[in-house]
Design goal:
Radius of gyration: 25 Å
Structural class: alpha+beta
Distance between the termini: 61 Å
Strand order of the largest sheet: 1-2-8-3-6-9
Number of strands: 9
Shape: elongated
Largest sheet: 6 strands, antiparallel
Order of helices and strands: EEEEEEEEHHEHHHHHHHHH
Oligomer: single chain
Length: about 270
């Protein structure tokens, strides 16, 4: 990772803003910018909030916020907050070939994008920040001209990184869809997360992370809810409840009782009336 040797920097021209600092966290009001913002979250413990969405940030995330989009950074503790940002005017982006910036100015994700560390490194995005900060310490006409050229190269690299990020997300969404189909078809069978993860050629921890991120619940929760629903379907076919729960994946009445109570708030005798 590139190192920033300067303690702070603030630069503004007609079409670009560049800023860097480390501070003790304080409350930030919800706000918006007139420019596209590309914020490199270097260090801290914070969440990015935009609209109704909240994202827990990780070190070296790059957060892209579009013009006029209300947002804020919420700090979770007193850890030092270090960040750098580049802001680019819509005018400057509009002067570039659209194909080179279409993912930045497009509306596929109106709330913005978060580029993770592996993709940011792949496209060498951090290098643009450090080079700009070093270059703009000496504000000569030449350096300011070169900074604008570097900003345009940065925009092209970000555009490619967004495409890569969206491709990864689409791939992850496909995995979750396939997993849900598998669970729907096999929810009453013996549940073995290691075997399921192996069939998807990934670790069970990453598979669980993807599933919860996409659905909002864990794989175990999803299976339990499907089994509880399956019990009702069997009861509608006049099968006694004493036989049903085993058919639907519960090993014994105790585990069946606990699951129904946990997810419905009712006893089986109350829920399945």
């Amino acid at each position: 990772m590139e190192n920033i040797t300067r303690s702070w920097l603030s630069y503004k021209s007609k079409d670009i803003l560049v800023s860097y600092f480390t501070i003790t966290p304080h409350r930030l009001d919800t706000h918006f910018h007139k420019y596209y913002e590309f914020l490199w979250f270097i260090k801290g413990n914070a969440s990015y909030i935009t609209g109704s969405n909240t994202y827990l940030l990780e070190a070296d995330d790059i957060i892209i916020t579009r013009p006029e989009k209300m947002h804020t950074i919420s700090f979770n503790d007193d850890s030092k907050y270090e960040r750098a940002f580049i802001q680019i005017s819509p005018r400057l982006l509009s002067m570039m070939p659209r194909a080179l910036v279409k993912n930045i100015i497009g509306t596929k994700n109106p709330d913005g994008n978060i580029i993770k560390k592996d993709i940011a490194q792949k496209y060498e995005l951090y290098r643009f920040y450090t080079e700009l900060i070093e270059m703009l310490q000496n504000r000569t006409e030449k350096n300011e001209f070169l900074a604008e050229l570097l900003i345009q190269r940065f925009a092209v690299a970000v555009n490619d990184a967004i495409a890569d990020t969206n491709s990864v997300k689409e791939s992850e969404n496909t995995v979750v869809s396939r997993l849900k189909e598998y669970l729907d078809d096999n929810c009453i069978s013996e549940f073995n997360l290691d075997k399921i993860a192996s069939s998807f050629f990934m670790s069970k921890y990453y598979l669980c992370h993807l599933f919860k991120e996409e659905t909002g619940i864990t794989i175990s929760d999803y299976v339990a809810l499907k089994r509880i629903a399956a019990v009702r379907e069997h009861l509608n076919n006049d099968v006694p409840i004493t036989e049903v729960y085993r058919r639907c994946g519960f090993n014994d009445y105790s585990s069946f009782y606990r699951a129904v109570k946990k997810y419905t708030g009712k006893k089986p005798s109350e829920f399945y009336k």
